[in-house]
Design brief:
two-stranded antiparallel sheet, Aminopeptidase, alpha/beta, 9 helices, 332 residues
Amino acid sequence: MKIPFLSLAAGVLLIFTASCNSAQDKSSATVTSAEGEQTTPNSIEVAPQDLRENLNFLASDELEGRATGGEGIEKAATFIEDFFSKNHIEPYFETYRDAFEIQGKKAFNVVGVLEGNNPKLKDEFIIVSAHYDHIGIQEAVEGDSIANGANDNAAGTVAVMELAEKFAKIDNNDRSIIFALFSGEELGLTGSAHLAEVLKQENLDLYAVVNLEMIGVPMKDKEYMAYLTGFENSNFAEKFNEYAGKTVLGFLPQAQEYNLFKRSDNYPFFEQFGVPAQTISTFDFTNYEFYHHVSDEAEKMNFEHMANLIEAILPAISKMANTSEKEIKMNN
């Protein structure tokens, strides 16, 4: 996420089968595992240790801060591709890579898709996304020059990966879901702008975009779990909370003050499609001091918080993917 004032200053594999035919009811349908255990999208558990393991790699020194065009981000992309393949998320294009060029550097988004099951709705798409690039090598602070980008945005990346894994296991979505990890965000939202343009040229029927950004630490003294950028632009938060059965998303005044709606990878999709395309974040300007800093390390992430947030997000996206009509709409 581009923060204006900061920028200027600096577990068991489960196989599920649907038990309900109604698109309105499927998101809360009971599904049965291979072991005979019953669950719903609302009761699926996310293991903090799984998030920790994936984030530890993405934010490791080996990846050298995942700068767009560097060797480190190549390793990150391969890691995400292998994860998608292992969890039966198909490539959206001929491969997982959506290639583009920026400042003479070769770059690529990683894009997978889980096809919907309803013949009438599977040509409508939801995008679940985050950027996986960061700012690479910086001026050393106490001997450390690698900006590992744990909160920004390995945290959002592993959340998208976890959601992809869980949705593939449920395999109960009527609409299709694209899971997109963007490069070039730190160079002006370039990767998301490229993918948005490509999908617009394809005349993709895009319903909504759920973008995840800097969710590695909880907010302080809030009645909601995360805030939504562009809160006032749509009924996204209202419906999302209704679907989740709890207050997941709220309004953060600073997000409006600094116009964060235009400063993350949701915005190019809003520009191209004019649909609800918004970012979920928990960076509230008071709870994390290491934005674009070499100390943005994996050890500072709160994995229990991340797991709880993903568990709350999952049933809401599931409901989005299964309502008979597009209920989330832009205001005015």
